[in-house]
Amino acid sequence: GRAVALPDQAPEGLTAFLRAPDADKVDPNDWKAKKRHQRRKRARRAERDAARHDAAAAPRPLGEEGLRAVVAALEALKAACPQFAVNGLMEPQNVWIVKPAAKSRGRGIQTFNEIDKLLEYVEARDRNTACQWVVQKYMENPLVVAKRKFDIRQWVLVTDWNPLTIWFNQECYLRFGVEEYTLDEENMDNKFVHLVNNSIGKYSKQYNQKLVAEDGKEIESCMWSSEDFKEYCKTVAGEDHFTNKIQPRMKEIAIWSLMAVQDLIEHRKNSWELYGYDFMIDDQFQTYLIEINSSPACDYSTHVTERFVKRALVDLLKVTLDTREWERRGGKPGPPPETGGWERVHRAAAVHPQASLGNDLFLAGTRIERKKKKL
After folding, report:
1. How many CB atoms lie within 10 A of CB 323?
2. 147-151, 154-158, 186-190, 310-314 — which is least confidently predicted?
3. What Gene3D superfamilies does its record include (predicted)?
């Protein structure tokens, strides 16, 4: 379509336009100038009257050209804002999710679409503790499979922080909500709709129900392997979005997030750290990082995690033992050891610490206070 450039500044308000004063001054002794001024004044008055009429008129069809211009402007906004569609494009409800910073397995997580209820929830649980909370914008337009939302648990391994060395497992698994996804008010606090943790979902009466995805593949115990998801994308979307789009983006996000905190980690040589990254996919197959977990669950909660964990942990030893020893010997003897499902996606140059300049950076702001109701 036709490209539309966005304005550098917001347009002047309609009220200011309708009430714009005459800027030009006229010499009262110059009758020709006075006549020209009167004509311009009448023309401006006619323009203002037409603008008032158009503003008060009933909406008219946008037309094909107008539609193309609107679509082009929205595409420009989308390119400038990575989270342009996170609220959903139809009837957004401004939903937010609240998480206790120091808890795991879905404990204490709640969704809200009203600020008073959110603050009341946090204050009630924070009264006698030093609990910290994480508040995130809730993705209102997730990709749903079998009418359920899901996230992707991805393992990432750091074998050295300086030089930063990152390994990415080529396999991952999907965790589904037990009940159908909805943003209805009555289900806003339904954990079986909004949370996908197995430690939460297994307590639902519907946990063992048979779920069948749109491609005919069954979802057992509310989990899928990444191979299942690949086949789903090929069958339903007509393209392997996981291999071509989602997984490369997850690798980029993993690398960027670890680079961002590299200088904050107190690391030790000859040690490693395993992280569980949680991603979500929106209905346009865009990838979003939800959170990063240290010491991710390695239990056999389902047949999907059992197969994954057994294979990934054995391969992890190939990286942390065999590869490290091979590198210690200067890459001898022979080729690099086989690392199974682990791929080294980043190895930076060593960073030599420099003396601090003594500058302190801080974030200043004001706390959101819940308004007290008048008696």
Report:
1. 20
2. 186-190
3. ATP-grasp fold, B domain
What residues contact residue 193 under an 8 Å CB cut-off, 6+ apart?
A: 149, 177, 178, 179, 180, 181, 182, 187
Using left for φ > 0, alpha for ψ between -120 and 50, and beta otherwise, residue 238 falls in: left
DSSP string, 96-158: EEEEETT--TTTT-EEES-HHHHHHHHHHHHSSS---EEEEE--SSB--BTTB-EEEEEEEEE
pLDDT confidence tier of residue 167, bands split at 50, 70 and 90: very high
Q: Token match 């071509």: residue?
A: 244
Q: Are 233 and 226 in contact (CB under 8 A)?
A: no
Closest among 245, 57, 79 to 71, alpha carbons compared: 79
Asked whether 346 and 165 are in contact (CB, 8 A), the reply is yes
3-state secondary structure of 314: helix
Closest CA to 146 of 230, 250, 217, 251: 217
HSE-up of residue 116 (Cα within 13 Å, Cβ side): 3
Please tell me what DSSP assigns to residue 220: B
- Quickly tell me which residue has 């391969």 as its tokens: 315
Q: What pLDDT band is residue 93 in, cutting at 50, 70 and 90? A: confident
Residue 293's DSSP bridge partners are 276
Do the Cβ atoms of 251 and 345 come closer than 8 Å?
Answer: yes
Task: Provide the whole-model pTM.
Answer: 0.74
State both tokens at 213: 């995805």
| CB 225 within 8 Å of CB 173 | yes
Mean pLDDT to the nearest integer, 237-244 = 94
Could you tell me the two tokens for 320? 């942390």
Q: How distant, in Å, are the alpha carbons of 20, 21, 36, 40, 106 from that of 27?
A: 21, 17, 12, 15, 77
